[in-house]
Amino acid sequence: MKFARFFGLKKNPRSRSYKRERAAALHGQVIKYVTERVEGGENIIGRGGNVSVRNGELLVLSSGELLLRADIYELEAADLLSGDGVVLTAPNLEKNGERTSIVVHFVYYRK
Predict the structure, then answer these.
(1) Which of 37, 58, 101, 105 would staple 89 via disulfide (CB 3.0–4.6 Å)?
(2) What pTM was computed for the model?
(3) CA-to-CA distance for 90 and 58, rounded, in angstroms?
């Protein structure tokens, strides 16, 4: 296990460097729509927008609103199996630190 981490084959998702890299990878992604997980399903809370990183915070801007503002070191990001989005869970600084879980679906661009 330590051998794999030493050579960069397996990274620790709880490390500060991994969280910084993950946030940098999300920076500039264009949003198709954003949903919020609620009991019994998901509600669409925004359409369009983008994800950006500023001053150590991840910002999700959609439908002209700031839906999520979170410290990148408190952020948990999990890719959707389809590869077209990410689940973001973190204390939302816009809602007085209330723990929020949103699903961000990205616009698909063939590269």
Answers:
(1) 101
(2) 0.85
(3) 10
Question: In this predicted structure, which of 2-6, 61-65, 71-75 has the lowest mean pLDDT?
Answer: 2-6
C-beta of residue 60 within 8 angstroms of C-beta of residue 34: yes
Q: Per-residue DSSP letters for 60-74?
A: EEETTEEEEEEETTT
Outline where the chain has alpha helix (H): 2-6, 16-26
Strand order of the β-sheet with 57-62 is 50-54, 57-62, 65-71
What is the structure's pLDDT at 83?
A: 87
Residue 99 has which token pair?
């723990």
The pLDDT value recorded for residue 77 is 94
Question: Contact 42/36 with Cβ under 8 angstroms?
Answer: yes
Kindly calculate the radius of gyration of the chain based on its CA atoms and give it in whole angstroms: 15
Q: Which residue, 69, 55, 73, 61, is CA-closest to 104?
A: 61
